[in-house]
């Protein structure tokens, strides 16, 4: 009997992962930026930006809304697709955790539509959007555990040792 997807952790660079889909912590413009977003666009090459521009010219003229997800080619990455999702900026006065959870749910929904079996996630919103790592990890892990999906492996790819340790503590490893 299946108990859901295997949740795994890797410390390292998400752009070096081999997976069916790599999740990009994008900005709403879909046109690249800093952090994970910039790294994915740089390593993946111009094919990703070309598809993002086409999305902006069609369905997402005002940009991709926070908490939503959309897929493009993965270009030169070792993946078939990049799933772009826009995380919320952390607020000390407003609870935006539902938007952060939506990033994970929507990314898995898109992965299921694509038929992706392995998905690599960064720690969404923990960079320039300043989401505290402990809370971001809690939202990420509880959301993917509660989301029905056909994805076989959900891999959290954490850039540094502290992020890895926070996620590992939640996963009991």
Automatic annotation (TrEMBL):
GO molecular function: O-acetyl-ADP-ribose deacetylase activity
Listed InterPro entries: Macro_dom, Macro_dom-like
Record EC number: 3.1.1.106
Coiled coil: none
Residue ranges occupied by any Macro domain in the UniProt entry: 1-173
Enzyme class: hydrolase
Top-rank taxon, per record: Bacteria
UniProt KW keywords: Hydrolase
One Pfam family this sequence matches: Macro
NCBIfam families (alphabetical): PRK00431.1-6
Protein name, entry field: O-acetyl-ADP-ribose deacetylase
Organism: Streptomyces anandii
Lineage, broadest ranks: Bacteria, Bacillati, Actinomycetota, Actinomycetes, Kitasatosporales
């Amino acid at each position: 009997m299946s108990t859901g997807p295997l949740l795994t952790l890797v410390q390292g660079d998400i752009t070096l992962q081999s997976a069916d889909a790599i999740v990009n912590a994008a900005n709403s413009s879909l046109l690249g930026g800093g952090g994970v977003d910039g790294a994915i666009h740089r390593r993946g090459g111009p094919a990703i930006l070309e598809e993002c521009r086409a999305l902006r010219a069609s369905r997402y003229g005002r940009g991709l809304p926070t908490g939503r997800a959309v897929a493009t080619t993965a270009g030169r990455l070792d993946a078939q697709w990049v799933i772009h999702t826009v995380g919320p900026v952390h607020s000390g006065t407003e609870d935006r955790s539902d938007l952060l959870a939506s990033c994970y749910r929507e990314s898995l929904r898109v992965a299921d539509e694509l038929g992706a079996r392995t998905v690599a996630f960064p720690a969404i919103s923990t960079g320039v959007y300043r989401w505290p790592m402990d809370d971001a990890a809690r939202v990420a892990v509880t959301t993917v555990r509660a989301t029905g999906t056909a994805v076989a492996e959900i891999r959290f790819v954490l850039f540094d040792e502290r992020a890895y340790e926070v996620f590992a503590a939640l996963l009991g490893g």
